[in-house]
Amino acid sequence: MMIKKTISIDMDGVLADIQRHYLSHYFEETGIRINENDIVGLKEADCLPDQTAVLRYLHTPGFFRSIPVAQDAQDVVKELQNYYEIFVVSAAMEFPNSLLEKREWLQEYFPFISWKNIVFCGNKGIIDTDFLIDDHLKNLDSFSGKGLMFNTFHNVNEHRFERLKNWTDAHRFFVADLQNKMFN
Amino acid sequence: MMIKKTISIDMDGVLADIQRHYLSHYFEETGIRINENDIVGLKEADCLPDQTAVLRYLHTPGFFRSIPVAQDAQDVVKELQNYYEIFVVSAAMEFPNSLLEKREWLQEYFPFISWKNIVFCGNKGIIDTDFLIDDHLKNLDSFSGKGLMFNTFHNVNEHRFERLKNWTDAHRFFVADLQNKMFN
After folding, report:
1. Residues of B in contact with A127 (CB under 8 A)
2. Which residues are CB-neighbours of B76 under 8 A, at least 6 positions away?
3. From the record, what ranges are coiled-coil (chains A, B) (predicted)?
């Protein structure tokens, strides 16, 4: 039996569609609808016209519990679990109130991921898996395995890591990785 | 400049004196005082005469927030931080309600450890540091670096890992490690 390779997957911006959540919170608060295209290339912390908004939302109780799940994430992760050992690795430690919310969110949307495979941390540099799928350069930079940049508005101008456009594209990447493993 | 080696340190049974906490909870509940010597060699889950007690305590809100800090742990960890990069790595994910309590507990007793260096996980096998100080064999077994068994009642009959008797002994071990590094 072959040992499964390991994949660490980030939450916000990867499993969870935090961009949509920011924009819908902003609309609820101000009545102003901002289009996803309008914030492409902006930094996460100041992607909204009210530059206090993002940080305020991140500290609002319930914010992390109610993020919509990213398109196709559930199906693809469940499928990948047949061939890889999957860990969810979130830098949740910065926002202590997010800890329980994130744990409950995972239980709701990814009940097939065991608590044994969930990691809430600060610096991801001590995570030892084969792959890390993340939207933040700082996490990919400190990671020692193969980093994969999950596409989102704030990272479009970064080109140092292989980019996964969405979960369908992530599926394609790992199918190719498996084929490569089988034929080499 | 030399790169600091990294040490992961467990919480319950290592930084936090959970044995004392079990015994004092049991005394408050029943009026029966059990001596530390009476439980040497017993398994953690059933170290008390009421074998439902430990699991019940672990699920009691406030239990993790109020564990007494282990003797000398603060002084020694603070001292070691000058020479090593210290991470706290706790298998907190099994008890979701413990997450915030453990984060707050660390903030109170170990404010000199950054949130960036705190990890709450399930399986410790994906933690990539040079050392792990832990009281549980299963965590040391899955760890890929050098495991150090922190002495406590339930692990006295395990002999596969080098044993640290207490925090003074941990200090001795790492002073020797530093000397070894300097003279080799």
Report:
1. 126-128
2. B167, B168, B170, B171
3. none
Q: Say what angle helices A98-109 and B98-109 make with each other, to 10 degrees.
A: 150
Instruction: Write down the ipTM of this complex.
Output: 0.93
Residue B54 shares a structural domain with residue B73: no
Is B87 near chain A, with CB under 8 Å? yes
Of A64, A82, A99, the position where a domain reaches its end is A64
In terms of domains, do B116 and B49 share one? no
The answer to whether A12 is a known catalytic residue is yes
Residues A57 and A78 grouped into a single domain: no
CATH of the domain at A136: 3.40.50.1000
Handedness of CA B38, B43, B49, B53 (dihedral sign): positive
**Are residues B126 and A122, on separate chains, in Cβ contact within 8 Å?**
no
A97 touches B: beta carbon within 8 Å: yes
User: What are the chain A neighbours of B87 within 8 Å (beta carbons)?
Assistant: 126
Chain A residue closest in CA terms to B145: A128
The angle that helices B167-183 and B73-80 make with each other, rounded to 10 degrees, is: 20
For residues B104 and B140, state if they share a domain: yes
| DSSP 3-state of A61 | coil
Told to judge if B10 belongs to the known catalytic residues of this protein, a careful annotator would answer yes
Q: Which residue is closest to B113 within chain A, CA to CA?
A: A122
**Chain B residues with CB-CB distance to A8 below 8 A:** 126
Query: Do B98 and B174 fall into the same domain?
Result: yes
Q: Are residues A80 and A41 part of one domain?
A: no
**B12 and B28 part of one domain:** no
Contacts (Cβ under 8 Å, ≥6 apart) of A82: none
Look up the domain containing B44 and give its range. Answer: 19-64
Domain count, chain B: 2
Number of C-beta neighbours around residue B164 at 10 A: 20
- Of the candidates B96, B97, B128, which has its C-beta nearest A126's C-beta? B128
CB contact, 8 Å: A131 with chain B? no
The alpha carbon torsion through A33, A12, B116, A162 (nearest 10 deg) reads: -110
Residues 5-34 of chain A with CB under 8 A from chain B are 6, 8
pLDDT by residue, tens only, chain B of 184 residues: 568 999 999 999 999 999 999 999 999 999 999 999 999 999 999 899 999 999 999 999 999 999 999 999 999 999 999 999 999 999 999 999 899 999 999 999 999 999 999 999 999 999 999 999 999 999 999 999 999 999 999 999 999 999 999 999 999 999 999 998 777 6
